[in-house]
Structure formats: structure tokens, C-alpha cells
Amino acid sequence: PRVRPEAQEVAEKSKGCMGALLLNLEIISLDDYCNTRGKQEKNHTAANVRRMREIQRNSRAREQEKQEKKNTPVKALWKSTQYEGVESKVKNFMQSPPQAPRPNTERPHSAPAGSRRQENFNSEKEKFQPTRSQTPRARSPSPNFVARNARAAKSYELKRSRSQLALRESDEKYQQGLKNYEETVKGKTPSYLRSRQRQWDMQERDRIRNAPDPTVPEGHTVLPDKERKATLTTLRKSQQELLERHRLLPIRSADTMGVRNRKTELEKQIMEVDEAIKVFERPRVFVRLGE
Q1: 115/121 Cα distance (integer angstroms)
Q2: What per-residue confidence (pLDDT) applies to 105?
Q3: Which stretches does the entry tag as region Disordered (predicted)?
Q4: Using CA atoms, how far apart are residues 222 and 287, in angstroms rounded to an integer?
Q5: Under a CB-based contact definition with an 8 Å cutoff, are residues 276 and 235 in contact?
Q6: How far apart are CA 289 and CA 221, in angstroms?
């Protein structure tokens, strides 16, 4: 292959680099080895002994200090110089000789009534008390502690610590609460959400009820169905009355002016009532606002 002209320059620059690197690594490793070899291992036994002796010296010094404090005389209480010559009344009472005993005023042959009753009761009690037999009783056999311990070992229950009992109780309470939650709460809608849903439904119905109807003409409103039916009933009654009045008009004097006018007026009213009945027979009746 063709060698580039700058290859010789690169070879000269890199000459001796690898050797210097290996020499530097050998020097570092030899220095570390020499440093670790010259160190001495620590004697932990001697250090522990020195520490123990130091603790003993400190303890003896504290004990000696306590002993010196105990031997220190107690400081006398302060006493006023005004009462130095005054003697204590308690001292006179303690140094006075004891008083002589009170003389016995009772007769020598008499005794208290209570003591006589007690003596009589004791004598009667001794009469009725059965005499004990002089034969020695047989000693009860000594308890068999081995058998007792064996029976106790069979019925022994392992006593757990309070922390374990508390942990078990808390675990049981948690499991019981989880069971109650799964039986009564899980998968059911909470009461506050149900009440909120009912409130939303009422608000939606009110909004729909109060919303303007696009089919209602402007300036009009829908007559309630109850009022529409009541008005229709009234119109039909008026229609029957007008027809009855029209039927009772006189026939012989029908050509007179008064009869003609009455007949024309009744026919006009009957036509208006008929038109109104047709309007109110519709399912929805629109009424102008303000009327």
C-alpha cells in the first residue's frame, strides 16, 4: 500500500510513548508495595488493655472524689445571737423525772366486770372443747412435683408478647373492616352521590320547563291544559244557551225588524263561539302575553 508523506512524522512523535507509560506504571506499583510493606499492623489487644486501665483509673478517681465529699463536715445552721442564752422548753420537759403511777382505787379482791365475763366464757369453752388424741397423725405424702410439671407442660400455652397480640388484633380488625366494606360499600353508589344525582335531575327538569319553546310565537305563551279544558267547557255551555235562545225565537213575527236583529245577533254569537271551540279543542293553545 502507498504510505502517506506524514506517516514518518507521526511515527517519530509517538516513538517511546509506550515504553515511558510502562515504566511509570512499574514505578507506581513498586512504591505502593514498599509503602504497604513498611507499615506495622495495629495491636488491638494492647489498645484494649490500655483502654480498660484508663477506665479503671477514672472510676477510682470518681470513687475517691465521692468519699471526700462524704467526709466533708456539714455546715452548721445559722442561729441568731439573740437567742444564745435562752433554754429550750423541750429540754426541761425531757430532763424532768417521770411522774409516779396513779394509785389503784379498786378493791384488791375485786376485778373488772369485763375480765370476769371473759374468764367465765373461757372456762365454759374449755368444758365443751373435745380432747385431742395423743396418737401422732400420719404425715401426708410429699407432692410429686415431677408429675405436676408434666401435667402442666401438656396444657401449657405459648404466651405471646403484647406487641404480637396487638399486631394480631389490628390485623383481625383490618380484615373485619375489609369484609364489611366488600359486603356493604363496595360496588354501591354513595348516598351523597345519589342525592346529588336527584338534585341534578330536578335542575334539568326546571331548565327544560323554563326554557323558551321554539314553536311558541314571539310574545305568546302556552295556555295550561287545565285552563284550556275549563275554557272549552264554558264555551260549550254558552253554545247550548245560544242555540236554545235561537230556537225560542217567534216564527210568526219573524219579518219584524226587532226579531231580525235578535236573530242576526244570536247567529253571530253562535259563529264566534264555534270558532272559539275549534281553537280550544287543539292540544296547545297560545295566548298573547299581558291578556
Answers
A1: 10
A2: 55
A3: 55-79, 93-171, 208-227
A4: 6
A5: yes
A6: 6
Answer whether 199's CB lies under 8 Å from 256's CB.
no
CA 269, CA 243: separation in Å to the nearest integer? 10
Residue 278 in grid coordinates: 275549534
Q: What is the DSSP letter of 185?
A: I
pLDDT in tens, 213-245: 777 778 888 888 899 899 999 999 999 999 998
Say how far apart CA 109 and CA 112 lie, in whole Å: 10
Place of cell 389490628: 170
CA atoms lying within 13 Å on the CB side of residue 65 = 6
Question: What digits encode the pLDDT tens for the residues 113-171?
Answer: 555 555 555 565 555 555 555 555 666 778 888 888 888 887 777 666 677 778 888 89
CA torsion 222-226-228-230 (nearest 10°) is -160
Packing angle between helix 257-280 and helix 225-247, nearest 10 degrees?
Answer: 160
Q: How many residues are listed for the chain in this entry?
A: 291
Nearest to 259 by CA among 246, 244, 272: 246
d(CA 199, CA 191) in angstroms, rounded, equals 12
Predicted pLDDT at 141: 76
Give residue 31's identity as a one-letter amino acid code.
D
CA 233/CA 227 separation, integer angstroms: 10
Q: Helix H segments across 72-184?
A: 89-95, 113-128, 145-154, 162-180
* Structural domain boundaries in the chain: 169-211, 220-288
Distance in angstroms (rounded) separating the CA atoms of residues 177 and 185: 11
Arithmetic mean of pLDDT over the chain:
77
Mean pLDDT within 8-16: 71
Q: Report whether 280 contacts 235 (CB < 8 A).
A: yes
Is there a contact between 219 and 288 (Cβ–Cβ < 8 Å)? yes
Q: What's residue 217's pLDDT? A: 79
Distance, in Å, from the CA atom of 283 to the CA atom of 24, rounded to the nearest integer, reads 111
